[in-house]
Amino acid sequence: MTALLTRLAAWLPPPMRSHASEERLRLLVQFLQFGVVGVIGFVIDTATVYALWHVVGLYVAGFAGFFTAATGTWFCNRLWTFRHLPGRDAWHVQWARFLAANFTGFLINRGVYVLLIAFVSFAARAPVVAVAAGALAGMLLNFNLSRKVVFR
Protein backbone atom coordinates (compact mmCIF):
# COMPACT_ATOMS: atom_id res chain seq x y z
CA MET A 1 0.00 0.00 0.00
CA THR A 2 2.84 2.40 0.82
CA ALA A 3 4.41 1.69 -2.58
CA LEU A 4 1.13 2.57 -4.30
CA LEU A 5 0.84 5.81 -2.35
CA THR A 6 4.47 6.66 -3.16
CA ARG A 7 3.69 6.26 -6.87
CA LEU A 8 0.59 8.40 -6.55
CA ALA A 9 2.53 11.05 -4.60
CA ALA A 10 4.86 11.44 -7.58
CA TRP A 11 1.91 13.01 -9.44
CA LEU A 12 1.41 15.69 -6.82
CA PRO A 13 2.56 19.26 -7.54
CA PRO A 14 6.17 19.76 -6.33
CA PRO A 15 5.31 21.78 -3.19
CA MET A 16 2.89 19.09 -2.01
CA ARG A 17 5.13 16.23 -3.12
CA SER A 18 7.82 17.26 -0.65
CA HIS A 19 5.37 16.57 2.20
CA ALA A 20 4.60 13.05 1.01
CA SER A 21 7.64 11.40 2.52
CA GLU A 22 7.84 7.64 2.81
CA GLU A 23 7.59 7.93 6.60
CA ARG A 24 4.39 10.01 6.37
CA LEU A 25 2.91 7.62 3.83
CA ARG A 26 3.66 4.66 6.14
CA LEU A 27 1.94 6.52 8.95
CA LEU A 28 -1.07 7.17 6.70
CA VAL A 29 -1.29 3.47 5.80
CA GLN A 30 -1.05 2.56 9.48
CA PHE A 31 -3.82 5.05 10.32
CA LEU A 32 -6.02 3.61 7.58
CA GLN A 33 -5.43 0.08 8.90
CA PHE A 34 -6.25 1.33 12.40
CA GLY A 35 -9.47 2.78 10.95
CA VAL A 36 -10.42 -0.54 9.34
CA VAL A 37 -9.80 -2.27 12.66
CA GLY A 38 -11.91 0.45 14.25
CA VAL A 39 -14.80 -0.50 11.98
CA ILE A 40 -14.43 -4.09 13.21
CA GLY A 41 -14.46 -2.75 16.77
CA PHE A 42 -17.56 -0.70 15.94
CA VAL A 43 -19.34 -3.86 14.79
CA ILE A 44 -18.29 -5.74 17.94
CA ASP A 45 -19.34 -2.81 20.13
CA THR A 46 -22.72 -2.40 18.43
CA ALA A 47 -23.43 -6.14 18.49
CA THR A 48 -22.64 -6.26 22.22
CA VAL A 49 -24.84 -3.24 22.97
CA TYR A 50 -27.77 -4.69 21.04
CA ALA A 51 -27.30 -8.16 22.58
CA LEU A 52 -27.29 -6.81 26.14
CA TRP A 53 -29.49 -3.73 25.81
CA HIS A 54 -32.76 -5.25 27.03
CA VAL A 55 -31.08 -7.43 29.65
CA VAL A 56 -28.88 -4.93 31.52
CA GLY A 57 -29.92 -1.52 30.11
CA LEU A 58 -28.20 0.81 27.70
CA TYR A 59 -25.55 2.15 30.06
CA VAL A 60 -24.18 -1.22 31.23
CA ALA A 61 -24.50 -2.58 27.67
CA GLY A 62 -22.48 0.41 26.43
CA PHE A 63 -19.65 -0.23 28.86
CA ALA A 64 -19.63 -3.96 28.11
CA GLY A 65 -19.61 -3.13 24.40
CA PHE A 66 -16.57 -0.94 24.78
CA PHE A 67 -14.68 -3.64 26.67
CA THR A 68 -15.42 -6.34 24.07
CA ALA A 69 -14.61 -3.95 21.23
CA ALA A 70 -11.34 -2.87 22.87
CA THR A 71 -10.29 -6.49 23.22
CA GLY A 72 -11.20 -7.23 19.59
CA THR A 73 -9.40 -4.17 18.25
CA TRP A 74 -6.31 -4.87 20.34
CA PHE A 75 -6.16 -8.37 18.84
CA CYS A 76 -6.64 -7.14 15.25
CA ASN A 77 -4.13 -4.32 15.67
CA ARG A 78 -1.61 -6.75 17.13
CA LEU A 79 -2.02 -9.13 14.18
CA TRP A 80 -2.28 -6.57 11.37
CA THR A 81 -1.78 -2.84 11.96
CA PHE A 82 1.31 -3.03 14.18
CA ARG A 83 2.58 -6.53 13.29
CA HIS A 84 5.83 -5.21 11.82
CA LEU A 85 7.04 -3.56 15.03
CA PRO A 86 9.84 -5.48 16.74
CA GLY A 87 8.95 -5.11 20.44
CA ARG A 88 6.50 -7.82 21.39
CA ASP A 89 5.48 -8.14 25.00
CA ALA A 90 3.50 -11.09 26.25
CA TRP A 91 -0.05 -10.80 24.93
CA HIS A 92 -1.61 -10.23 28.35
CA VAL A 93 0.88 -7.44 29.18
CA GLN A 94 0.25 -5.75 25.84
CA TRP A 95 -3.53 -6.16 26.19
CA ALA A 96 -3.48 -4.59 29.67
CA ARG A 97 -1.29 -1.73 28.39
CA PHE A 98 -3.69 -1.25 25.46
CA LEU A 99 -6.65 -0.93 27.82
CA ALA A 100 -4.72 1.40 30.14
CA ALA A 101 -3.32 3.59 27.34
CA ASN A 102 -6.71 3.93 25.72
CA PHE A 103 -8.50 4.82 28.96
CA THR A 104 -8.61 8.51 27.96
CA GLY A 105 -10.07 7.51 24.61
CA PHE A 106 -12.52 5.35 26.56
CA LEU A 107 -13.62 8.36 28.61
CA ILE A 108 -14.17 10.43 25.48
CA ASN A 109 -15.82 7.53 23.62
CA ARG A 110 -18.22 6.55 26.37
CA GLY A 111 -18.72 10.15 27.49
CA VAL A 112 -20.14 10.99 24.08
CA TYR A 113 -22.16 7.73 24.14
CA VAL A 114 -23.68 8.47 27.58
CA LEU A 115 -24.46 12.09 26.72
CA LEU A 116 -26.23 11.08 23.52
CA ILE A 117 -28.20 8.28 25.22
CA ALA A 118 -29.21 10.63 28.04
CA PHE A 119 -30.12 13.71 26.02
CA VAL A 120 -30.93 12.66 22.45
CA SER A 121 -34.04 10.51 22.27
CA PHE A 122 -33.15 9.26 18.79
CA ALA A 123 -29.82 7.92 20.11
CA ALA A 124 -31.63 6.15 22.95
CA ARG A 125 -33.94 4.47 20.42
CA ALA A 126 -31.08 3.69 18.00
CA PRO A 127 -27.93 3.28 20.12
CA VAL A 128 -25.83 2.60 17.03
CA VAL A 129 -25.76 6.39 16.58
CA ALA A 130 -24.26 6.89 20.05
CA VAL A 131 -21.79 4.04 19.56
CA ALA A 132 -20.59 5.52 16.23
CA ALA A 133 -20.27 9.05 17.58
CA GLY A 134 -18.28 7.82 20.57
CA ALA A 135 -15.99 5.69 18.42
CA LEU A 136 -15.14 8.58 16.11
CA ALA A 137 -14.52 10.89 19.06
CA GLY A 138 -11.91 8.59 20.59
CA MET A 139 -10.23 7.23 17.45
CA LEU A 140 -7.47 9.76 16.83
CA LEU A 141 -6.34 9.79 20.45
CA ASN A 142 -6.39 5.99 20.61
CA PHE A 143 -4.32 5.72 17.42
CA ASN A 144 -1.57 7.94 18.78
CA LEU A 145 -1.54 6.24 22.17
CA SER A 146 -1.51 2.80 20.57
CA ARG A 147 1.43 3.73 18.33
CA LYS A 148 3.50 5.39 21.01
CA VAL A 149 2.67 3.41 24.15
CA VAL A 150 1.32 -0.05 23.29
CA PHE A 151 2.73 -1.28 19.97
CA ARG A 152 6.20 0.24 20.14
How are the secondary structure elements laid out?
Blueprint: H1 2-9, H2 14-17, H3 22-56, H4 58-81, H5 91-101, H6 103-119, H7 121-125, H8 128-150
Q: Would you write up a description of this structure?
A:
With 152 residues, this protein is mainly α. It has one domain (32-150). It has 8 helices and no strands. The chain has helices at 2-9, 14-17, 22-56, 58-81, 91-101, 103-119, 121-125, 128-150. The chain is globular, with a radius of gyration of 18 Å. The two termini are 21 Å apart.
| Whole-angstrom Rg | 18 Å
Q: Please give the oligomerization state of what you see.
A: single chain
Structural class: mainly alpha
Number of helices: 8
Number of domains: 1
Strand tally is 0
Question: How much helix, percentage-wise, in residues?
Answer: over 70%
First-to-last CA distance: 21 Å
Strand percentage: under 5%
Helix-strand sequence: HHHHHHHH
Global mean pLDDT:
88
Main sheet attributes: strand count, strand direction, barrel closure = none
**Low-pLDDT windows of residues:** none
Shape: globular
